[in-house]
Protein backbone atom coordinates (compact mmCIF):
# COMPACT_ATOMS: atom_id res chain seq x y z
CA UNK A 1 0.00 0.00 0.00
CA UNK A 2 0.96 3.67 -0.37
CA UNK A 3 1.71 4.16 3.33
CA UNK A 4 4.14 1.24 3.33
CA UNK A 5 5.87 2.49 0.17
CA UNK A 6 6.15 6.02 1.54
CA UNK A 7 7.58 4.70 4.80
CA UNK A 8 10.40 2.93 2.93
CA UNK A 9 11.07 5.39 0.03
CA UNK A 10 11.10 9.14 -0.50
CA UNK A 11 11.65 11.30 -3.59
CA UNK A 12 13.44 14.60 -3.92
CA UNK A 13 10.77 16.97 -5.27
CA UNK A 14 13.33 18.95 -7.32
CA UNK A 15 15.73 16.30 -8.65
CA UNK A 16 13.43 13.28 -8.73
CA UNK A 17 16.05 11.20 -6.87
CA UNK A 18 14.42 8.29 -5.04
CA UNK A 19 16.02 7.46 -1.72
CA UNK A 20 15.29 4.93 1.01
CA UNK A 21 13.95 6.16 4.34
CA UNK A 22 14.70 2.86 6.08
CA UNK A 23 16.50 -0.31 5.13
CA UNK A 24 14.18 -2.64 3.20
CA UNK A 25 13.91 -6.32 4.18
CA UNK A 26 13.70 -8.67 1.23
CA UNK A 27 12.40 -11.46 3.44
CA UNK A 28 9.42 -9.23 4.33
CA UNK A 29 8.86 -7.71 0.88
CA UNK A 30 10.97 -8.05 -2.24
CA UNK A 31 9.00 -5.96 -4.80
CA UNK A 32 7.75 -2.38 -4.67
CA UNK A 33 5.73 -0.40 -7.19
CA UNK A 34 5.96 3.41 -6.98
CA UNK A 35 3.73 5.85 -8.84
CA UNK A 36 5.70 9.05 -9.43
CA UNK A 37 4.03 12.26 -10.55
CA UNK A 38 5.83 15.17 -12.24
CA UNK A 39 4.22 18.61 -12.36
CA UNK A 40 5.43 21.60 -14.38
CA UNK A 41 5.12 25.20 -13.29
CA UNK A 42 3.11 26.47 -16.24
CA UNK A 43 0.15 28.78 -15.62
CA UNK A 44 -1.47 29.19 -19.02
CA UNK A 45 -3.77 27.59 -19.47
CA UNK A 46 -2.84 25.44 -16.36
CA UNK A 47 0.02 23.32 -14.91
CA UNK A 48 0.64 20.06 -16.69
CA UNK A 49 1.50 16.72 -15.04
CA UNK A 50 2.52 13.19 -15.92
CA UNK A 51 2.90 9.97 -13.99
CA UNK A 52 5.34 7.11 -14.27
CA UNK A 53 5.51 3.72 -12.58
CA UNK A 54 8.77 2.74 -10.92
CA UNK A 55 9.42 -0.92 -10.05
CA UNK A 56 11.99 -1.58 -7.35
CA UNK A 57 13.34 -5.08 -6.67
CA UNK A 58 15.13 -5.68 -3.36
CA UNK A 59 18.08 -8.02 -3.89
CA UNK A 60 19.00 -10.61 -1.30
CA UNK A 61 21.72 -10.09 1.25
CA UNK A 62 23.04 -13.03 3.26
CA UNK A 63 21.68 -11.80 6.58
CA UNK A 64 19.85 -14.91 7.83
CA UNK A 65 21.45 -17.87 9.60
CA UNK A 66 20.33 -21.44 8.86
CA UNK A 67 17.85 -22.61 11.48
CA UNK A 68 17.42 -26.29 12.41
CA UNK A 69 13.85 -27.58 12.33
CA UNK A 70 14.39 -29.22 15.74
CA UNK A 71 16.59 -28.19 18.63
CA UNK A 72 17.44 -31.83 19.39
CA UNK A 73 16.95 -34.83 17.13
CA UNK A 74 16.66 -38.19 18.90
CA UNK A 75 16.70 -41.54 17.10
CA UNK A 76 16.91 -45.13 18.30
CA UNK A 77 18.94 -47.59 16.23
CA UNK A 78 19.35 -51.36 16.87
CA UNK A 79 22.96 -52.33 17.34
CA UNK A 80 22.81 -54.81 14.45
CA UNK A 81 21.74 -52.18 11.90
CA UNK A 82 23.45 -52.89 8.55
CA UNK A 83 26.30 -50.63 7.51
CA UNK A 84 25.32 -47.80 5.12
CA UNK A 85 21.79 -47.61 6.53
CA UNK A 86 20.12 -44.21 6.86
CA UNK A 87 19.71 -43.26 10.52
CA UNK A 88 18.01 -39.86 10.34
CA UNK A 89 17.84 -36.72 8.22
CA UNK A 90 18.40 -33.30 9.76
CA UNK A 91 17.14 -30.12 8.14
CA UNK A 92 17.98 -26.45 8.51
CA UNK A 93 16.14 -23.73 6.62
CA UNK A 94 17.48 -20.35 5.56
CA UNK A 95 15.21 -17.36 4.80
CA UNK A 96 17.60 -15.98 2.20
CA UNK A 97 17.52 -17.11 -1.42
CA UNK A 98 19.81 -18.65 -3.99
CA UNK A 99 23.25 -19.64 -2.77
CA UNK A 100 22.65 -17.61 0.38
CA UNK A 101 19.97 -20.14 1.31
CA UNK A 102 21.74 -23.30 0.15
CA UNK A 103 22.65 -25.22 3.31
CA UNK A 104 25.47 -27.73 3.72
CA UNK A 105 25.87 -29.99 6.73
CA UNK A 106 28.79 -31.52 8.62
CA UNK A 107 29.42 -33.40 11.89
CA UNK A 108 31.77 -31.39 14.09
CA UNK A 109 31.92 -33.51 17.27
CA UNK A 110 30.68 -36.68 18.94
CA UNK A 111 31.36 -39.02 16.02
CA UNK A 112 33.30 -41.53 18.14
CA UNK A 113 35.30 -43.96 15.98
CA UNK A 114 33.75 -42.43 12.84
CA UNK A 115 30.57 -44.48 13.13
CA UNK A 116 28.44 -41.98 11.20
CA UNK A 117 28.58 -40.00 7.96
CA UNK A 118 26.43 -37.02 7.00
CA UNK A 119 25.67 -36.23 3.37
CA UNK A 120 26.60 -32.58 3.09
CA UNK A 121 23.87 -31.38 0.67
CA UNK A 122 20.95 -33.35 2.16
CA UNK A 123 21.56 -33.77 5.90
CA UNK A 124 21.04 -37.55 5.68
CA UNK A 125 23.08 -39.37 8.33
CA UNK A 126 24.21 -42.94 7.64
CA UNK A 127 25.82 -45.47 9.96
CA UNK A 128 29.05 -46.52 8.22
CA UNK A 129 30.67 -48.72 10.87
CA UNK A 130 29.09 -51.49 12.99
CA UNK A 131 27.52 -50.42 16.28
CA UNK A 132 27.91 -52.31 19.55
CA UNK A 133 25.55 -51.57 22.43
CA UNK A 134 27.95 -53.20 24.88
CA UNK A 135 30.68 -50.73 23.85
CA UNK A 136 28.84 -47.41 23.29
CA UNK A 137 25.15 -46.97 24.08
CA UNK A 138 24.65 -43.36 22.99
CA UNK A 139 26.21 -40.91 20.56
CA UNK A 140 25.77 -37.14 20.79
CA UNK A 141 26.52 -35.72 17.36
CA UNK A 142 26.89 -31.95 17.02
CA UNK A 143 25.87 -30.83 13.55
CA UNK A 144 26.93 -27.68 11.71
CA UNK A 145 24.70 -26.05 9.08
CA UNK A 146 26.47 -23.58 6.79
CA UNK A 147 24.89 -21.55 4.01
CA UNK A 148 26.48 -20.74 0.65
CA UNK A 149 26.89 -17.00 1.20
CA UNK A 150 30.19 -15.18 0.88
CA UNK A 151 31.11 -15.10 3.68
CA UNK A 152 28.90 -17.97 4.86
CA UNK A 153 26.74 -17.87 7.96
CA UNK A 154 27.14 -20.89 10.26
CA UNK A 155 24.83 -22.47 12.82
CA UNK A 156 26.62 -25.02 15.02
CA UNK A 157 23.77 -25.75 17.43
CA UNK A 158 22.38 -28.89 15.76
CA UNK A 159 22.32 -31.93 18.06
CA UNK A 160 21.53 -35.50 17.07
CA UNK A 161 21.27 -38.11 19.83
CA UNK A 162 21.65 -41.66 18.51
CA UNK A 163 20.51 -44.19 21.11
CA UNK A 164 21.81 -47.69 20.39
CA UNK A 165 19.23 -50.37 21.17
CA UNK A 166 20.39 -53.68 22.61
CA UNK A 167 20.08 -56.82 20.51
CA UNK A 168 20.42 -60.29 22.03
CA UNK A 169 23.80 -60.97 20.45
CA UNK A 170 25.78 -62.27 23.44
CA UNK A 171 25.81 -65.87 24.67
CA UNK A 172 25.71 -66.43 28.44
CA UNK A 173 29.08 -67.31 29.96
CA UNK A 174 29.51 -69.39 33.13
CA UNK A 175 31.77 -67.63 35.61
CA UNK A 176 33.79 -70.83 36.11
CA UNK A 177 33.58 -74.35 34.78
CA UNK A 178 33.49 -77.11 35.73
CA UNK A 179 31.65 -76.48 39.00
CA UNK A 180 32.54 -78.92 41.79
CA UNK A 181 31.06 -79.49 45.25
CA UNK A 182 30.93 -82.09 48.00
CA UNK A 183 27.97 -82.89 50.19
CA UNK A 184 27.39 -85.25 53.13
CA UNK A 185 25.06 -88.13 52.38
CA UNK A 186 22.91 -87.38 55.44
CA UNK A 187 21.91 -83.80 54.53
CA UNK A 188 18.23 -83.01 54.48
CA UNK A 189 16.21 -82.67 51.33
CA UNK A 190 16.31 -78.99 50.31
CA UNK A 191 19.94 -78.53 51.32
CA UNK A 192 21.79 -76.03 49.08
CA UNK A 193 24.80 -77.65 47.49
CA UNK A 194 26.34 -75.15 45.07
CA UNK A 195 25.51 -71.90 43.31
CA UNK A 196 25.79 -72.05 39.54
CA UNK A 197 26.28 -68.59 38.02
CA UNK A 198 26.46 -67.28 34.48
CA UNK A 199 26.68 -63.74 33.11
CA UNK A 200 25.33 -62.18 29.91
CA UNK A 201 26.72 -58.96 28.43
CA UNK A 202 23.36 -57.96 26.99
CA UNK A 203 20.85 -55.74 28.77
CA UNK A 204 17.30 -55.94 30.10
CA UNK A 205 15.37 -59.06 29.17
CA UNK A 206 18.21 -60.09 26.89
CA UNK A 207 20.41 -60.63 29.96
CA UNK A 208 17.86 -62.46 32.14
CA UNK A 209 19.06 -66.02 32.60
CA UNK A 210 17.26 -69.28 33.31
CA UNK A 211 19.07 -72.41 34.42
CA UNK A 212 18.27 -76.02 33.58
CA UNK A 213 19.95 -79.30 34.54
CA UNK A 214 20.78 -81.62 31.63
CA UNK A 215 22.15 -85.15 31.25
CA UNK A 216 20.14 -86.61 34.14
CA UNK A 217 18.70 -90.09 34.75
CA UNK A 218 15.45 -91.10 36.50
CA UNK A 219 15.63 -90.58 40.26
CA UNK A 220 18.27 -87.87 39.93
CA UNK A 221 18.54 -86.37 43.48
CA UNK A 222 19.28 -82.72 42.67
CA UNK A 223 17.24 -79.82 41.35
CA UNK A 224 18.16 -76.29 40.28
CA UNK A 225 16.33 -73.05 40.89
CA UNK A 226 15.87 -71.88 37.31
CA UNK A 227 16.23 -68.19 38.19
CA UNK A 228 18.91 -68.15 40.92
CA UNK A 229 21.10 -71.09 39.86
CA UNK A 230 21.19 -72.69 43.32
CA UNK A 231 21.37 -76.49 43.18
CA UNK A 232 19.64 -78.24 46.08
CA UNK A 233 19.10 -81.82 47.22
CA UNK A 234 15.71 -83.10 46.12
CA UNK A 235 15.99 -86.80 47.13
CA UNK A 236 17.80 -88.59 49.98
CA UNK A 237 21.45 -89.36 49.17
CA UNK A 238 23.28 -92.64 49.71
CA UNK A 239 27.02 -92.61 49.08
CA UNK A 240 27.19 -96.43 49.14
CA UNK A 241 24.74 -96.51 46.24
CA UNK A 242 26.06 -93.63 44.13
CA UNK A 243 29.19 -91.69 45.10
CA UNK A 244 29.55 -89.23 42.20
CA UNK A 245 27.09 -87.31 40.06
CA UNK A 246 28.16 -85.59 36.90
CA UNK A 247 25.62 -83.52 35.02
CA UNK A 248 25.33 -80.47 32.86
CA UNK A 249 23.65 -77.10 33.40
CA UNK A 250 22.31 -74.91 30.60
CA UNK A 251 21.73 -71.18 30.82
From TrEMBL:
Domain of life: Eukaryota
Entries under SMART domains matching the protein: CA (SM00112)
BP terms from Gene Ontology: anatomical structure morphogenesis; homophilic cell adhesion via plasma membrane adhesion molecules
Signal peptide (residue range): none
Topology in the lipid bilayer: Single-pass membrane protein
Domain Cadherin: 1-68, 69-174, 175-249
Any one cellular-component term (Gene Ontology): plasma membrane
Coiled coil: none
A Pfam short name: Cadherin
GO MF terms held by the record: calcium ion binding
TM regions (residue ranges): none
Gene3D superfamilies in alphabetical order: Cadherins
Alphabetically ordered keywords of this record: Calcium, Cell adhesion, Disulfide bond, EGF-like domain, Membrane, Receptor, Repeat, Signal, Transmembrane, Transmembrane helix
Cell location: Membrane
Protein name: Cadherin EGF LAG seven-pass G-type receptor 1
Originating organism: Maylandia zebra (zebra mbuna)
